Amino acid sequence: MSIKRAKQRTFGKSTDEAQDDYFAKPKEPERTWEEHTVGKSDDDFQKYAMSARLAKGALVSHPKFGKGIVVGVEQTNVQILFADGVKKLGHGVTG
């Protein structure tokens, strides 16, 4: 004799989906790197440092990636748009 069971319902995201969001590739910005940096002088860009707190729209100069603009801010990470694409870097880290 078999007993029929109702299917279990799940609400919200599963743990696998939540992890996929965490490791997801950063969203591509609406504007290109060229559009963000046109007409900006070298003096407008601040040197990138992990210890500095950055805000969205800040212009930074990275020793390896070059000039970029902050397009996304999280608690300890920022997404910076460089000519090569978006990079996720640390910020506000003290140690």
Could you name the key traits of this structure?
95 residues, 2 helices, single chain, elongated, alpha+beta
Shape: elongated
* String of helices and strands: HHEEEEE
Helix share bin: 10-25%
How many strands, which pairing sense, and closed or not: the largest β-sheet?
5 strands, mixed
Can you list the strand order of the major beta sheet?
1-2-3-4-5
Distance between the termini: 65 Å
| Cα-based radius of gyration, to the nearest Å | 20 Å
Average pLDDT: 82
Percentage of residues in DSSP E strands: 25-35%
Q: What oligomerization state is this entry in?
A: single chain
Question: Would you count the extended β strands for me?
Answer: 5
Count of runs of 4 or more consecutive helical residues: 2
The helix/strand class is alpha+beta
Low-confidence segments: none
Textual characterization of the structure:
The chain has a five-stranded mixed β-sheet with strand order 1-2-3-4-5. The chain has two helices and five strands; from the N terminus they run ααβββββ. It is α+β, with helices and mostly antiparallel strands and about 100 residues long. It has helices spanning about 15-20, 35, and strands spanning about 45, 60, 65-75, 75-80, 85-90. Strand 4 (about 75-80) and strand 5 form a beta hairpin. It is elongated, with a radius of gyration of 20 Å. The N and C termini lie far apart (about 65 Å). The protein has a domain at about 30-90. The model has no long low-confidence stretch (mean pLDDT about 80). Helices cover about 15% and strands about 25% of the residues. About 10% of the residues are buried.
